[in-house]
Amino acid sequence: MGLARQSVQKLADKLEKAGIVEYAPNPNHGRAKLVRLNEKGRRVMKALTQSQIRFANEIASAASSAEIEAALGVMRKLRLRLESDQTSGRAV
């Protein structure tokens, strides 16, 4: 995903300290642990998801269904182009 392991580890440690995630043994790796949401993390994720849905619905109300479909088509086309460029080795 283009992220440095150290930055991901720092974020995971902060989330654990905040009581949002927990580390679990990884059966596929001797040293690396799995990071998973705990109960508080699931509540936070649910609240964030609901907030995001409300926000998306609010901003989407400014456009017609046809306009949203057209924008979605453009975004899909651009995503495919970016994915193609990444797999072909071209700089993005």
State the total count of DSSP E strands. Answer: 2
Report the end-to-end length measured between terminal Cα atoms. Answer: 13 Å
Largest sheet composition = 2 strands, antiparallel
Number of domains: 1
Gyration radius (Cα, Å) is 19 Å
Description of the molecule:
The protein has 92 residues and is mostly helical. The protein has a single domain, classed as Winged helix-like DNA-binding domain superfamily/Winged helix DNA-binding domain (Arc Repressor Mutant, subunit A). It has three helices and two strands; from the N terminus they run αββαα. The chain has helices spanning 5-17, 39-60, 65-88, and strands spanning 21-24, 34-37. Strands 1-2 form a two-stranded antiparallel sheet. The protein is flat and about 50 Å long. The two termini are 13 Å apart. The model has no long low-confidence stretch (mean pLDDT 92).
Name the descriptors.
3 helices; about 10% strand; Arc Repressor Mutant, subunit A; about 90 residues; two-stranded antiparallel sheet; single chain; mainly alpha
Gist?
The protein has 92 residues and is mostly helical. The chain is built from three helices and two strands; from the N terminus they run H-E-E-H-H.
